[in-house]
């Protein structure tokens, strides 16, 4: 085979190192470093014949156990496939292991993530207030499917690969819509959490034409950037306006220090969980190191972080099972019925043996 393969212990350990907490001593048998689609096709053909599991990996920032090699096999490190294929006024086509270029929607950890890893393992992010989940920005996906064929998914079919964690194929390139506008940001500071929630819900209900909106607690600001009070950051495109608040361009420039960035900085000692709550939000639930991101799915995406396992357990006990449960090894509960149905249908048709990222999809 042409693809570079390593079974050195240090490479196998490095390949499972990610932001997934509680990573047990599960290691892949080898790590592959493909440079192009032909090498992936050859590798996939070999693995189908030999019944070897395959787990694709981008930047390793997954927070939902997506990279665990539950049945061993080969982790495919996609980061050498990072070329720009083509670009026009509105779209850009990138190899899956690329970083972001003018994205409409991207995760807080965009500096460390790949476009393929975010599409296959992420969901909502910066820009989702206006544009929705990351998969709505992707108009064509190229992937090597579990029959070893290079296929193109377009329109609604892109959901077969979106947040599927590689269970339906190895994504090799994505054609994505670009954001061609400058973003401005303002900040509104509040004296109490109730005031902050009331204000943000009013903006949300009035469908204000914002790009992004995030409500941050004093505690998260202390660990990163922002005032020692509840504050709302509103970001809007250059052709829009926002009357209230003060200029927040400095905080916006540091948006990699929003919630996921704070977790990343404190990874070894921090715990986190996430909930998607309906409106109206009860102010009593927002305590401690927390952030609320608003997206276009009529939910408040609330992230909680703590330095105590006991406190984390208390949070989980009081809110019950999350409707976006990152602790659940299966992707099923995190997606809409229609979305997961597409993934299951494809999986049943092409990968009954569950060789593609095994154990992550209930089907
Ligand atoms: C505290 C915290 C908060 C987070 N908040 C958000 C958030 O708000 N929004 C969000 O979208 N994400 C969020 N994330 C998750 C994660 O940071 C991002 O989704 C990130 O962009 C993943 O990209 P990556 O390249 O690191 O992917 P990886 O971690 O390498 O992979 C992610 C998943 O996709 C699969 N995969 C990777 N590449 C491919 C490929 N080429 N083909 C098929 N499957 C592939 C992997 O097997 C894995 O299951 C958060 C993470 C943390 C720790």
UniProtKB/TrEMBL annotation:
<dbReference type="Pfam" id="PF01565">
    <property type="entry name" value="FAD_binding_4"/>
</dbReference>
<dbReference type="InterPro" id="IPR036318">
    <property type="entry name" value="FAD-bd_PCMH-like_sf"/>
</dbReference>
<dbReference type="InterPro" id="IPR016166">
    <property type="entry name" value="FAD-bd_PCMH"/>
</dbReference>
<feature type="domain" description="FAD-binding PCMH-type">
    <location>
        <begin position="24"/>
        <end position="181"/>
    </location>
</feature>
<dbReference type="InterPro" id="IPR016169">
    <property type="entry name" value="FAD-bd_PCMH_sub2"/>
</dbReference>
<protein>
    <recommendedName>
        <fullName>FAD-binding PCMH-type domain-containing protein</fullName>
    </recommendedName>
</protein>
<dbReference type="GO" id="GO:0071949">
    <property type="term" value="F:FAD binding"/>
</dbReference>
<dbReference type="InterPro" id="IPR006094">
    <property type="entry name" value="Oxid_FAD_bind_N"/>
</dbReference>
<dbReference type="InterPro" id="IPR051914">
    <property type="entry name" value="FAD-linked_OxidoTrans_Type4"/>
</dbReference>
């Amino acid at each position: 085979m042409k693809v570079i393969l390593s079974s050195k212990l240090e490479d196998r350990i490095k390949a499972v190192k990610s932001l997934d907490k509680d990573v047990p001593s599960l290691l892949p048998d080898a790590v592959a470093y493909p440079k192009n689609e032909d090498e992936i096709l050859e590798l996939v053909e070999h693995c189908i014949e030999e019944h070897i599991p395959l787990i694709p990996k981008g930047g390793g920032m997954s927070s939902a156990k997506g990279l665990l090699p539950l049945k061993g096999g080969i982790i495919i490190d996609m980061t050498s496939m990072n070329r720009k294929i083509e670009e026009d006024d509105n779209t850009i086509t990138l190899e899956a292991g690329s970083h972001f270029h003018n994205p409409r929607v991207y995760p807080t950890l965009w500096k460390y993530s790949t476009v393929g890893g975010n599409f296959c393992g992420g969901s909502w992010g910066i820009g989702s207030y206006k544009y929705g989940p990351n998969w709505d920005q992707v108009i064509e996906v190229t992937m090597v499917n579990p029959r070893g064929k290079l296929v193109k998914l377009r329109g609604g079919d892109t959901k077969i690969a979106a947040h599927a964690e590689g269970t339906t194929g190895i994504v090799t390139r994505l054609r994505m819509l670009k954001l061609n506008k400058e973003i401005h940001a303002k900040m509104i500071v509040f004296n109490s959490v109730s005031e902050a929630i009331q204000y943000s819900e009013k903006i949300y209900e009035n469908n204000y034409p914002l790009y992004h909106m995030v409500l941050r607690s004093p505690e998260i600001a202390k660990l990163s950037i922002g005032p020692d009070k509840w504050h709302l950051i509103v970001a809007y495109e250059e052709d829009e306006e926002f009357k209230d608040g003060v200029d927040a361009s400095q905080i916006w420039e540091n948006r990699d220090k929003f919630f996921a960035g704070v977790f990343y900085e404190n990874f070894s000692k921090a715990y986190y969980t996430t909930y998607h709550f309906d409106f109206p939000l009860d102010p009593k639930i927002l305590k401690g190191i927390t952030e609320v991101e608003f997206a276009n799915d009529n939910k408040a995406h609330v992230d909680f972080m703590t330095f105590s396992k006991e406190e984390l357990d208390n949070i989980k006990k009081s809110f019950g099972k999350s409707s976006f449960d990152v602790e659940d090894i299966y992707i099923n509960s995190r997606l809409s019925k229609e979305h997961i149905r597409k993934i299951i249908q494809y999986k049943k048709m092409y990968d009954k043996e569950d060789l593609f990222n095994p154990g992550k999809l209930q089907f």
